[in-house]
Amino acid sequence: DVKVTQSSRYLVKRTGEKVFLECVQDMDHENMFWYRQDPGLGLRLIYFSYDVKMKEKGDIPEGYSVSREKKERFSLILESASTNQTSMYLCASSLIPGSYNEQFFGPGTRLTVL
Amino acid sequence: GDSVTQMEGPVTLSEEAFLTINCTYTATGYPSLFWYVQYPGEGLQLLLKATKADDKGSNKGFEATYRKETTSFHLEKGSVQVSDSAVYFCALRSDAGGTSYGKLTFGQGTILTVHP
User: Fold this and answer.
1) Burial of B83: CB neighbours in 10 Å, binned 0-12, 13-18, 19+
2) pLDDT digits (tens, 9 = 90+) for A19-67
3) What pairing do the DSSP bridges indicate for beta strands B110-115 and B11-14?
């Protein structure tokens, strides 16, 4: 059974803290993605990676960075957390681009920044 | 750029009612279209997809037809169940090349609640 796991389901941090969100997939997928989900806005892409050590900015990269040192792991980093980064964060992975390749999602991490 | 617009929610129905959730899109070229579902406390999972015009995706009693002439991909189900209560997302994937290929653009999501 395919699986994308995220390190925490719930996380509470303080303004200014450095926050790491971890995502691991066991499907040997090339592509990995980080989204944030906010009510009324759907999912918005923060960053994605199409190979180890490769990354590209998505639609809302400001305030975030990513790291992909191994194929199965993709980390999202909030260098200095702010209250407007309180959100649900979803990780996803997929095979190399192709019309038939779906994205598989993790369960999400609900981050609250106080 | 690409965009997806879903009907406003929340949608509340009685069990066995007919469901339609509207989805329209704007994209260049010939995108692939998807419906994802998110059950309470879970991540998104693919419900159905269509990769070219006039294709019909179907799964678990849900259907959607890729209509290029109206740029729409409306989700329908003839008889909903309480277990269908979830958030539904329409999404598209552009067929543009380059490293952005494979990126999904999502609608805002529609909350569906089905009462017994």
Assistant:
1) exposed
2) 999 999 998 988 899 999 998 888 999 999 988 988 999 999 999 999 9
3) parallel
| Chain A neighbors of B6, CB-CB under 8 A | 42
Three-state secondary structure of chain B: CCEEEECCCCEEEECCCCEEECEEEECCCCCEEEEEEECCCCCEEEEEEECCCCCEEEECCEEEECECCCCECCEEECCCCHHHCEEEEEEEECCCCCCCCCCEEECCCEEEEEEC
Q: Judging by DSSP bridges, how do beta strands A87-94 and A65-70 pair with one another? A: unpaired
Q: Which of B34, B38, B89, B95 is most worth mutating to test chain A (most A CB atoms within 10 A of its CB)?
A: B38
Q: What is the mean pLDDT of chain B?
A: 91
A102 shares contact with chain B (CB less than 8 Å): yes
For residue B75, give the nearest of B50, B39, B101 by alpha carbon. B50
Contact (CB, 8 A) for A73 and A21 = no
Query: Residue A68's Cα: distance from chain center in Å?
Result: 11
